[in-house]
Write a structure and sequence with these properties.
The chain has 205 residues and is of the alpha+beta class. The protein contains 5 helices and 9 strands, in the order αβααββαβαβββββ. The chain starts with 6 loop residues before the first helix and ends with a strand.
Length: 205
């Protein structure tokens, strides 16, 4: 229907590229509230939404990139040579611009938006495709919390996304401190042996 690679062939290609040391950006994305589109306007309209998103992906990314449909309204892309967020955001914003222009008569003025999670692959990391997939999937979940074209990048320990604090504090979410351009936000509490561990997220603003 979309003329994109399926999950099996796409995953195989990405796995081989990673094994060769080809760095890139892996993206997972799906349509916001897609089930309600099917339920409200019918499956034919839903199919047109899927085709429209596939067309946007083909226009936003290059022929050399691996674009695949995972099933339903879920897609994945491996963009070769995209190794930093700045370049990644340029491509993703191009995709968002195309998505924003989708017009499907069968759904009237209903806007199509997507949620996207992205993870960068560095050849110096000993990382499998499954691990890369999990990274993108974990932040795609964060993007889904706000309806609208939104992307979230995974940041590993080297990027200082998560900080651990060992002193007991209130369990309520609260701002801790602002250092330069970074805001530390209390996220949740974990039990670790006899100590209390607190996890903080580092956000740029």
């Amino acid at each position: 229907m979309t003329k994109l690679k399926n999950r099996g062939s796409g995953e195989k290609m990405i796995t081989e590229l990673m094994a060769e040391g080809t760095e890139g950006m892996f993206c997972l994305l799906d349509a916001d509230k897609f089930k309600s589109i099917n339920d409200t306007f019918g499956h034919d309209a839903g199919d047109k939404v899927i085709k429209a998103i596939a067309d946007c992906l083909k226009k936003a990314f290059r022929n050399s990139d691996v674009i695949m449909r995972l099933g339903g309204d879920e897609f994945a892309v491996y963009a070769l040579g995209i190794t930093d967020e700045e370049r990644g955001n340029i491509v993703i914003n191009r995709l968002f611009g195309l998505i924003d222009k989708i017009e499907i008569p069968e759904i009237g003025d209903r806007k199509i938006t997507i949620s996207l999670g992205a993870a960068l692959f560095n050849s110096e990391e000993n990382l499998s495709f499954t691990e890369l997939y999990k990274r993108a999937d974990s932040v795609a979940y964060e993007s889904k919390k706000t309806v609208g074209n939104r992307a979230t990048f995974y940041k590993n320990a080297d990027n200082i996304q998560w900080w651990i604090y060992h002193n007991k504090m209130s369990s309520d979410t609260k701002n801790l401190s602002i250092v330069g351009r970074f805001l530390f936000i209390y996220k949740r509490k974990l039990s670790y042996f006899s100590k209390e561990l607190y996890i903080f997220q580092l956000n740029c603003f």
